[in-house]
């Protein structure tokens, strides 16, 4: 099990380098990439690049910035065939012309939900789905370590309140997500990884998600950390992140037929309150109209107190959900699109 970091982790930053609500060209985002990140991105764009073509980019140390300066003739001179050379140069041109919105520019949940036929500026009208949870035993070593880790931080941070710093909230969120990965990995035998501040580029928007959880090369779940007063913005941004994550997975799958059905899970959290989303093309659902809650009360440092037991119960409940979602999505990875569709239709039908 691993936790990979593709870019430096800056807890206080959750957005791309777009000022305000401005758009940015796709080229501007790609220019930030080093050679390895550029190759990773190009592999997922359905350009049909052979390993020979990839190796030329690698050997010539082509970065995101130099990618937009190379010509077809230069690529051919270094041994690349006409087909991939043309594809790369044409793709670079398209990237310069394509404008994307930053995830952070989505402030109105009502505008985002309109795409799904939901006419509301709140979460109460988002359809429900049935959670697949995993039982967390009190004796689970990862659960015990998680609780101790939280208490270790709480001793100096104090209780978590409405306006607690994002960096403080991130430490609790990260601790819980790491624990969920360990438990899910032990139970499934699969290798999960988590990438903080992970950049995702979709067809119409882009930016960094606070946490992206992957199994192999596929995104399974993306998490948006928001202070409680901005939770509706968190919903709006997480939905756009899920759309872009789906598009990223779709390009990597390279299916020969037209059936690209897939689904992902989203998490919107303030560390205290946890909301869970289920996304599939054209549909968005939530697990509940009320969040799963963890009370980070400094009185929990006393292990004989009611607050300590409340903390344990809250952490256990959140872990049971996150682990359940990861297990469900990872175990469905090898299913056909039709089986995936039947699976989530069942989850949604149970709540109708």
From TrEMBL:
<dbReference type="InterPro" id="IPR013761">
    <property type="entry name" value="SAM/pointed_sf"/>
</dbReference>
<protein>
    <recommendedName>
        <fullName>SAM domain-containing protein</fullName>
    </recommendedName>
</protein>
